[in-house]
Specification:
The chain has eight helices and 20 strands. Strand 3 and strand 4 form a beta hairpin. The chain has three domains: 176 residues, no CATH class; 210 residues, Collagenase (Catalytic Domain), CATH 3.40.390; 52 residues, no CATH class. Strands 1, 5, 6, 12, 13, 14, 15, 16, 17 and 18 form a ten-stranded mixed beta sheet that branches. Strands 2, 3, 4, 7, 8, 9, 10 and 11 form an eight-stranded antiparallel beta sheet that branches. A two-stranded antiparallel ribbon has the order 19-20. Helix 3 crosses helix 5. It is of the alpha+beta class and 488 residues long. Helix content is 15%, strand content 28%.
């Protein structure tokens, strides 16, 4: 039995382009644009949550009690916000889009919303228009739920869409929570026509430390992973591209996608990953309808991402993930595993201003999304993984959630380790299947270990140039006396 499902992740990017002799810092979608583009901005409390199938697309509907309206008219006391994806096994529905906001009843939120055709609302830019209220003593703060994006505090560029002078460079900083009172006042002032600089960002909180409880992240549910079993028997996973191709490239993206597929194959000796070309297709179903094809859509035919990528402004470049898999579990390496059957990659509309015909960059985007379709999560930069700023070893990974600069379709050490753990039967000795990271001799018997893994005895137990650092386990979610592989 096959379950219709979507497991996908967003690859959030920061636009990089020259601006004369100076560099400007900017958030992917600045708060100014969130306010200006929103049909409604509200403080609201989650009342209920339900999952339903709406004309083939699984959506989670959240009902909110409105506490305060900062922008918008005629909203009443309650509203419905719908988010792509959701899981309700009793209804036979299973769709999960990593990167979308998830709320629990009772959550206090700040929402930047757009109006849908059915009268409900959507969160602007998939996740960027949603904030959860946190309280510490008398202080209220806002942080984004379900994501850990890198943000910067301010910029001296306001918008200037379509103007060459407004092209921007992004510098990455640690995620900074917003002081709730100051942020709300800034929104109200802007809504009243008072334009002023942001004064509401707070320093990085002391609780925001790197803890690596598991060595790698995977595209998974609460208690299972997803992987392709075709590779185990030497079979291939075939990929189609939409016939229209990628605008701005002489090969219509064919050569770039070829490089992306090869990236996941050529680096491995023991991992039988084989991604091949199945030609072009006219199918545009994407994540909405399973059609037994793995398909790269060069634009968002079905508004799966909804908001287009903007320059300046930023947004989501692409999403990639699994759209069909078995609904019964298989045991693999002692883990509950679902077999993948179909995958999709959807490139957002409006990315031409970002890619600008850069073949290496386009290939890198494709390769990153292919990594998600293989079942890999992010190496760093989201809530399930460390911060990219903490480690070059992780930040250089193709599967890092952030993009500093284009380096092409190249997988690096952390990508190799993650893929091997998911696909290489010989990577772990049989004795390792019951061992957990942090256990005695884990790295010497089951390694080499990646960064943040333990327990190691010597540098040789660690991958590449990593070194075995003694008695630092408490910094990585282990016991204090655990030795951990770290960057030199």
């Amino acid at each position: 039995m096959s379950c219709r499902a979507l497991f996908s992740l967003c690859f959030t990017v920061w636009f990089m382009a020259p601006v004369g002799a100076s560099a400007l810092t900017y958030v992917p979608v600045p708060d100014t644009l969130l306010v200006d583009r929103a049909d409604a901005v509200v403080r609201a409390t989650v009342v209920s949550r339900s999952v339903g199938d709406e004309t083939g697309r699984v959506m989670t509907s959240y009902e909110f009690d409105i506490t305060e309206v900062l922008r918008g008219e005629g909203l009443g006391s309650r509203l419905i916000v719908k988010v792509l994806g959701g899981i309700d096994l009793a209804k036979g529905l299973g769709v999960k889009v990593f990167g979308t906001p998830e709320f629990d009843p009772g959550d206090s939120t700040l929402l930047f919303l757009s109006t849908a055709q059915d009268g409900s609302y959507r969160v602007l830019h998939i996740f960027q228009g949603a904030f959860i209220e946190r309280r510490s003593g008398a202080q209220r703060t806002y942080e984004r739920p379900g994501t850990d994006r890198f943000e910067v505090a301010r910029s001296n560029v306001e918008s200037g869409a379509g103007s060459d002078s407004a092209r921007m460079t992004i510098q990455l900083a640690a995620p900074m929570p917003r002081d709730a009172d100051l942020f709300e006042q800034w929104i109200s002032d802007r809504q009243s026509g008072v334009i002023r600089s942001a004064d509401y960002f707070l320093p990085e909180s002391s609780r925001d430390v790197t803890v690596i409880a598991s060595p790698f992240t995977y595209l998974s549910g609460d208690d299972f992973i997803l992987r392709w079993f075709e590779f185990d028997s030497g079979r291939k996973v075939r990929w189609h591209r939409h016939k229209d191709g990628q605008a701005g490239f002489s090969s219509k993206g064919a050569q770039e996608f070829k490089k992306a597929r090869k990236a996941w194959k050529r680096k491995f000796s023991g991992v039988p990953i084989k991604l091949t070309n199945a030609g072009t297709t006219s199918s545009t179903t994407g994540f909405d309808i399973a059609d037994s094809r793995n398909t790269l859509l060069h634009r968002d035919f079905n508004d799966s991402i909804e908001e287009d990528f903007e320059c300046p402004g930023g947004g989501v470049l692409a999403i990639g993930g699994l759209s069909d898999f078995d609904f019964f579990f298989t045991r693999w390496k002692g883990l509950s595993t679902l077999a993948a059957h179909e995958a999709e990659i959807v490139v957002n509309d409006g990315i031409d201003c970002f890619v600008q015909g850069n073949s290496d960059l386009m290939a890198q985007i494709y390769a990153h999304e292919l990594g998600h379709t293989l079942g890999l999560g992010h190496a760093c930069g989201d809530p399930s993984s460390p911060k990219c700023s903490k480690s070059d070893f992780l930040a250089e990974a193709l599967m890092a959630a952030r993009l500093d600069q284009p380096f092409g379709a190249e997988i690096h050490d952390d990508d190799i380790l993650a893929a091997r753990q998911l696909y290489d039967e010989d990577f772990w000795a049989a004795a390792c299947e019951k061992k957990a990271p942090g256990a005695k001799s884990f790295c010497s018997k089951c390694g080499p270990c990646g960064e943040g893994q333990g327990n190691c005895k010597k540098d040789g137990d660690c991958f590449g140039t990593l070194v075995c650092t003694r008695d630092v386990g408490v910094d990585f979610g282990f016991d204090a006396d655990v030795n951990v592989c770290t960057a030199p």
